[in-house]
Task: structure prediction
Amino acid sequence: MLEVRRAPARSGRLPAACPDESPGEGGAVRLHLKITLWIVAIFLIVGGFSIYALVLFQRSATLQQFEAMAKTLTGTILQSLTTTMINNNPREMKQIIGHIEETPGIHRVRIYSPNGRVWASSRAEEVGVLRPSALLARVLSRREAAAEERPEAGELHVLTPIENRAECRACHAADVPVLGAIGVSLGTGQVAAHLRSTAHLLAGLVGFTFLLALGTLSVLLGRFVLDPLSAMVAAVRELSRGNYRARAAVSTGDELGVLAAAFNDMSARIERSTAALAEEISDLTRRLSTLTVFSKTLTAAADLSSALHEAAAAMREAVHADACVVYGRSEEGLRPMAAAGEPALVAPWGTALTGGLAGRPLSTPGGPGEDQRPIPGVGAALAVPLRTRDQDLGAMVVARAREQPFERTDLMLLQTVANQLAIAIENVRLFEEVREKEHLRRELLSRLISAHEDERFRISRELHDEVSQSLTGLMMRLNAAEEVVPQDLEQARATLAAVRGVAEQTLEEVRKIIFALRPTLLDDLGLIPAVRHYAKNLLEPAGVQVRLSATGFGQRRLPRPVETTVFRVAQEAVTNIARHAQARLATMTLELTDGTVRLTVTDDGVGFDPESTLADPARRRLGIVGMEERVALLGGRLRISSRPGEGTVVQVELPVDVAVPGGV
Result:
C-alpha cells in the first residue's frame, strides 16, 4: 500500500503545472471506472458467446437425440402398420394412424408412395394428394431414414423408407427395392422449452459467477493496484505543485513498490537539485542586484573616489570576501584608491601582487585565475586587472581569511565590475582633459572678445576724442571763414558751404562708426535705450516699422558682459533685417524673469533656410556663428527659426548671474 507524506511547500517554489483539484481522486475514479467497464464488456462478450455456444451445442445434441428417437419411433410405427399394409386394409390403417396421432408429441403420420403421393393418412382429404419433397427423394434414393426440422411449424419431420420385403412381393414387383416411405411429424415445443430453461439456467449461473468475479476483482484491483496508483498520482501532483518533499511510502515488493521507490529517489534528487538551483538563483540575483546598484552608484556618484569605495564595498559583499582593495596606477606606481572590509589582509602583498598581473587574473589557492601564486598570510585571494583597450589602470583584489577558494562566477563578476571601473577611471581622465581644454578655450575666447571690445572702445574713444574734435574744429573755422568773407564773393561762400557740408557728413559717419563700435548709450543709459536707438536709426530710414517692448527690468542694470552680448546679438539681428530681410515690420521684446534675460527679434521678411546657410561656409555672412560664440560663452542659448517666405525669429536666453572667465 502506498500513501503520500506531505510537507508544507517552501517559499519560492515553482508554480503548479497541473489543474488545482483533489490529488489522485479524479484520476483514480476514472481509471477504476474504465477498468470496471472493460471487465464488464469482456465478461458480457465472453459470457454471452459462451452461453450462446452452450445453447447451440445443447440444442444440437437434443435435436440429434430427438431425431434418433423419432427414427426409432418411425420404425416402430412402420412395424405396427406392416401387417395392415400387407392386408391392404385402408380403414384399419386409418384407425391405427389416428390412434398413433393421439400420442402426445406426434402431430402427423403419413405414408407416401414412391412418386410422392399420400397413400395413407388419418385425414381422408389428404389421401391421394401429391406432396413431393427433397427429403422424400433423398430417403427413397438412399434407402435410409432422414429427418428435417421445420421451425416455422415447430415440428421435426422424419421419413423412413418402406423396404420391399419378401412378404410384400405378393402384391409388388420384386425388382422395386423401396415401396415408399412413412413420415412422422413430431412436435419440438418440449425441446424448445427445455432449451429455454437450460439457457436461463446457464445465464443465471454465468451472471452470478460474473458478479462474484467482478466484485472480487474490483476489490483486489482497488486494494493492490488502484489505491497505490492513486497515492502515486497524489505524490506526483504534489511534486508538480512545487512540494518537492512529497514522498510515497513503500510497503510492497512488486512493480508498484519498485516504481514508488524510484519516484521517491527522483523526488529527493529534484528536491536537492531545486534547493541548489534556488540557492544559485538567489546568489545570482544578489550579484545582479549588486551590479545594478553599482551601476547606478557609478552613474550618480559625485566623484570617482566615492564610486570606487562603493564598488569595493559591493564586491566584498557579493563574493563573500573579508577585504576588497582597488589599486590605481599613477606616475609613482600603484597605490590604494579605495578599500572595504579588512584591508590589512591585502596590504602586505597587494602592491607587489597587482604589479605582476600582466593583464591576467590571479587566484590562490586554486580557483579560477589563469595565474596561480601562493600568498603567505591569506586563506584565499582573487585579483583582476583594471584595463582599457590600450592602458593598464590598476587592479582590484578580494581576499578571505579562511581557505575557501573563489569560484568562476566570482571571477566573472569581479571582471565585469573591474571593466566598468576601468572605463569610469578612463572617462574621468578624459573628462578632466576635456574640461581643462574647454576651460582654456573659454578663457582664450573670453580674452579675445574682451580684447575685441577693448579695441572697439579704444577706437571709438580715439575717433570721438581726435577725429570728431578735429572735424568739429574744422567746421567752426569754416563758419568763421564764412563770416569774414566779403558779401559779394558768392562763389567763395558757396565753396566754403560745400566744404562744411562734407565736414558735417563726415562727422555724422564718424558718429555712426563710434556708435557701432561701442554705443555710448549702452554705457550711459543701459541696454534698452541702446537697442531702441540702434534699431530705429537703422531700420526706420529703410522703411521698416520698429516695435520694441521691455518688461521686468525696472531700474536694474545687467552685468556689462550680459548687456554687451545681448546688444551685439540684437545688433546682428537688426543689421540682417536691414540688409537681407526686405521686411516691413520688426518686433523686438526684452524680458527679465527668474534671473534670465530673454531677447526675441521677429521680422516679416523673406526668411531663409538656417541649415543650408550654416552648412555653406560662403553663406555664413549673417553673423550667426559670432552670436553663437558670444551666447555660449555666457552659458546661454540661441535659437534661430526661419523658413523661406515666412520671416525670421531670433531668440536668446542668458543667465544674468553668470561667472564670466577672464573678467569679460
Remarks:
- Residues 408-484 form the longest helix (77 residues).
- The longest strand covers residues 178-187.
